[in-house]
Amino acid sequence: MSVEPFNRLVKLSARAFYDDITKGDNQPKTGRSDNRGIAVVVLDALTRRQWVREEDLAKDLKLHSKQLRRTLRFFEEEKLVTRDHRKETAKGAKIYSAAAAATFDGQKFGKEGEEKIKLHTHSYCCLDYAQIYDVVRYRIHRMKKKLKDELEDKNSIQEYICPNCGRRYNALDALRLISMEDESFHCENCNGELVAESDKLAAQEAGDGDDNARRRRREKLKDMLQRMEVQLKPLMEQLNRVKDLSIPEFGTLQAWEAHASAAGRAAGDSSSNDPSKSSQGYGGTPMPFLGDTKVEVALPGAEGNQVDVKSETASAQKVLPPWMIKQGMNLTSEQRGEVQQESKMVGGSGTGKLSDDKKSTVEDDKKNIQDEYVKAYYEALLKKQQELDTGEKQQESSNSPTSNGLPKMSSNRQVGMKVKRDEDEGDDDVDWEEAPVTGNTNENYKVDLNVEVPEASEENEDDDIDWEEG
Amino acid sequence: MFFHIVLERNMQLHPRHFGRNLREHLVSKLMKDVEGTCSGRHGFVVAITGVDSIGKGLIRDGTGFVTFPVKYQCVVFRPFKGEILEAVVTMVNKMGFFAEAGPVQIFVSNHLIPDDMEFQSGDMPNYTTSDGSVKIQKDSEVRLKIIGTRVDATEIFCIGTIKDDFLGVINDPTAV
After folding, report:
1. Where in the numbering of this chain does the RNA polymerase Rpb7-like N-terminal domain appear (chain B) (predicted)?
2. Which of A158, B105, B155, B158 is the most exposed place for a label (fewest CB within 10 A)?
3. Going from the N-terminus, what domains does chain B have, and what CATH number goes with each?
C-alpha cells in the first residue's frame, strides 16, 4: 500500500496532459500570470505532501498564492485535487469580531493585519488518488474513442458547407438540399453547390479530389492514434500497475488531521490541533497513520483461526473481535455469543476438518485462551445485565439444575459464595477455558465442547447470582 | 419500429352524412384523414385496425358540422437511432444515396458507405466495389443502420450507414 506508484502516475499524467496548460486564458499574459509549466510543478509538489495548506505550498514553491490558487482551482475542476476551506483564527488569536467574517473570501498571508484579529479562511489541498486514477483513465478513453470514431466515421453526421456564403448544413438536411436539375446538393441561400466538409481534427486541406482528401485524413488520424499510443505508453503501463493496488486515501482534512496528530503524538511530537504544524511536520512522511490501521488488521488475525472456523460453519456471520465488544453493545455481543456456541455445536456434530483446524491452532493456544476468556467475561457481564431485573426467584431456579447436573461445579460455586467473588470467578474461568484446549484430540474435543458450553452458560448465571448477592 | 397504439382524434362530419351510415362515414373519413400521415411524436400512421369508441357529437355553431371524439387503434411506424432497416434505394448521387423504408426516407452519405465502394456516374449512377461484385444503384435493396433522425412535427427524416458488419446490399436488381 505504497503511495509511490500513484505518485508516479500523477507525475506522468501531469507531464502528459497538463504540461502546456495555461490557466486563465481570458487574462492578459503578463510575465507574472504566465504559468506555463506551473501545473507540473504543483502536482509534483503535491505528490510529496498530503494535506497541505495552500499558503505553505505557495511559500515552498516560491509562487504567488493567487497564482497557485488559480492552478489549484483548475485542478479541482479537473478532479485531481480535493480542497477544503476552513475558517481559522490567526496564530494565537482568539475568536472575535463578526466583522471578520466579511473578510473570509480567500486565504490571506497571515501577516496582513496583526492588530486586527481576524478569522481567516485557510484552504487546504490534497491529491485525490482514487479520482485521479479514474480521471486519467477516462481521459485516455475519450481521446481514443474520439480518434477511433473519426477514423471509422462511425456515427458521424456528414456536414456540408457552401463555399460561396459559408452556410453549413448536415446530412439531415439532405432531403431539402437535393436539387432536381443535377444530382448534387445546393445551398438554400445562394444555390451554390455544397461541398462535403472535411474533418475537424485533421487539417483542412480543401479537397479537390474528395477521395484523396479522405485518404489523407485517415492516414493522419491513424498516425495520430499511433503516436498517442506510443507517447502514452508509460502512462498506460503505470495505470495497469496501479490497477490492483489499493489506493491511498487520506480522507477528509479533519480525518487526516486526527490521524496525523495521533501519529505525531506517538512519535513524541505533541502537536495536537495545529494544522499548520501538522501539515508541515508530516507533509513529507508518507502515510504516518498507517501503523494504526495495521494494528487493526492484525488483531483479528490473532484469533483468525476462530474466525475462519466460524465463517466456514456459520456462514458470513460477522463476528466482532473481542476487543471491540464493550458494555454498550448488547445486541452484537449477544449475537456473537450465540454464534460461537452454535458453531461449536456444529463442530461437535463432527466435521473432521473443523477439528483439524482446531488442532493446528495449538501454537496459538495462549492467545485463544485469552480471547476466549475475554469473550466469556463479557458474555457473563452481558448476561448479568440482562438478568438484573429478574429477582431472587430466578436464582433458585437456576441453582437447582446446576447442582443436579454438575455436582462438582455446584460445590465450587457454593464455596465461592462464601469466599471472595473475584477469585472464584477467575478460577472458574480459567478451568473452563483450559478444558477444551487440553482435550484437543479429535474425539475428546466434541464431547468437551458439548459439555463445556452449557456449563459455561450456567456458570455465568451462577456468577451473576454471586454478583447480585454481593 | 412498429407500434400498435390507441390514438384519439376529433372528427368533423358534414351534416349530409348524418343518417344510418353515420358511423361508417366517420370511420372511412378517419382512415382517409389519418392513414399515411406522420406525426413527430408517434411516427407514421400505417393503418387503422379498429375504432374503440366514438364519443358524443357536438354541433358546431354556424356550420352544422358535428365534431366527434374518436378513439382508434392503429399501427404506427417510428424509426429510431440505431435501428436496422431494410430499404430500397431511390436515388444515387455523388453525395451518397437516398433510400426508402416504407414511408420513411433515409439518406446515406458517401462517407458512410464502405471505403472500397466508389461512385460511378453515368445514366445509372451507382456505388461499386473495385471488383464490381457489389453494386448499389437505384432499386437496390440495402440493409442499413439509422444513425440519426430528424423529427419534425409532420415529417421524419433519417440518415443511415452501411459501413458496418452485415450491412449493405441484400439483393442486386441486375443479378435477378
Report:
1. 8-64
2. B155
3. 2-77 (3.30.1490.120), 84-171 (2.40.50.140)
